[in-house]
Amino acid sequence: MEWLEKMNAALDYIEENLAGTIDYPTAARIACSSLTRFQRMFAFMSDMTIGEYVRCRRMALAAGDIKGTDMKIIDVAAKYGYESPEGFARTFRAFHGIAPTQARKGGPTREFPPIRMEIKIREGNTLLGERPLVRMEELSHCRAVGFYADCEEPETQAWSQMRRWAIQSLKDYAARRYIGYAPIGHHPANSEEGPHPYWAMMLLHSGEGEGDTFLGAQVVDAPQGVFLVGDVVLNEYSDDGAIDIGLSMKNASQTVYACMVDMGEYELDFEGRIYLEEHIFPQQWFTGQGSEQLLPEWKFWLPIRKKDD
User: Fold this and answer.
1) Cα separation, 295 vs 280, whole angstroms
2) How far is the C-alpha of 17 from the C-alpha of 80, rounded, in Å?
3) In whole angstroms, what separates CA 70 from the centre of its chain?
4) What number is the average pLDDT over the span 253-259?
5) N or C: which end of the chain has fewer CB within 10 A?
6) How far is residue 2's CA from residue 8's CA, in Å, rounded to a whole number?
7) Which ranges of the chain does DSSP label H, i.e. alpha helix?
8) Is 154 a residue whose pLDDT tops 60?
9) Closest to 81 (Cα-Cα) out of 51, 122, 102, 36
10) How many CB atoms lie within 10 A of CB 302?
11) HEC profile for 266-281?
12) At what angle do helices 50-68 and 85-96 cross, to 10 degrees?
């Protein structure tokens, strides 16, 4: 894929300038991308920001210089952009777990090899190396337990109902698959507030959804069709330091969309369909042990269809 070659060319530029100044807009231009999209794509594929990656690479190289050369530690710090030895020592210890002086005496240090972007196709999944980047999934004739709410915070209400029902009715609730969606969007008329409908659903196994209810809960048709599914990386924060789930979800949607465009064979399909959010809940979320603080993992489901030939 051409876009992948461009991403690797940008990474080559970064690698060549680790002992110097890295101009991120230049890296983005090499990737034929805007800076914002380049940063989002990198974070989506690597689970870290480009700044974190550069810091890790520099600390790995710094350890090699300290252990393998006679360079003064203060000169190693300057080589990798640190004006103060104290700041370099703090970052070095945070990464390696030991001080630079201990590394010089032969103490163990971490390795952090450069990243190379590689795409493989396996069983319908597009993989970055061995890690799923995006996958294609089709829901066909699927049924689900559904909890519906229409209020100012329907997501909280619908998932709370799901949690109470799941722990009372199921033994394998933590192993089930959960999806949620707002049929008309999370905020009507582009408003940031106000009531709106929301569905919290648990997909049912074959045979479980034959009736109108399952273990006392309403059974409904799950959304159908082909979706491009990608991870949501929680790397956006609000002004008060809290994770901004909405912005993180938006960034993931833009990255999944960019992957669809790069694939070339598919297009968006919003005719009677909408994007989904898959929730992957930790066990403690169900049992209520710190559930208010525990966040699930999310995957973003973008509705797509094959382009007409």
Assistant:
1) 9
2) 10
3) 41
4) 81
5) C
6) 10
7) 2-16, 24-30, 35-46, 50-68, 73-79, 85-96, 100-104, 154-169, 245-263, 283-287
8) yes
9) 51
10) 23
11) EEECCCCCCCEEEEEC
12) 100
Whole-model pTM over 0.85:
no
DSSP secondary-structure letter at 7? H
User: What is the Cα–Cα distance from 190 to 192, expressed in whole angstroms?
Assistant: 7
Nearest CA-CA partner of 157 in 197, 189, 192: 197
**What is the dihedral sign for C-alpha 245, 247, 251, 256?**
positive
CA dist 179 and 142 (Å) reads: 12
List pLDDT tens digits, range 27-43. Answer: 999 988 888 778 877 87
- At residue 294, the pLDDT reads 61
CA distance 171 to 176: 10
**C-beta separation of 267 from 188 below 8 A:** no
Which pair of structure tokens corresponds to residue 144?
């689900």
Contact status, residue 149 vs residue 245, Cβ threshold 8 Å: no
Tell the residue number behind the tokens 């190379």, with chain if given. Answer: 116
Residue type present at position 281: F
| Residue 263 confidence (pLDDT) | 72
Task: Name 144's Cβ contacts closer than 8 Å, sequence gap at least 6.
Answer: 179, 201, 202, 203, 204, 209, 219, 220, 221, 222
Q: What per-residue confidence (pLDDT) applies to 124?
A: 47
Report the number of secondary-structure helices (H) and strands (E) in the chain: 10, 12
Structure tokens at 202: 């648990």
Query: What tokens does 168 get?
Result: 């009372």
Neighbours of 112 (CB within 10 A): 17
Cα 281 from chain centroid (whole Å): 15
Q: What is the mean pLDDT of residues 153-171?
A: 94
Mean residue pLDDT across the chain:
84
Average pLDDT estimate for 243-250 = 78
Q: Dig out the tokens for 130 from the structure.
A: 């061995």
Q: Are residues 226 and 137 in contact, defined by beta-carbon separation less than 8 angstroms?
A: yes
Residue type, 32: C
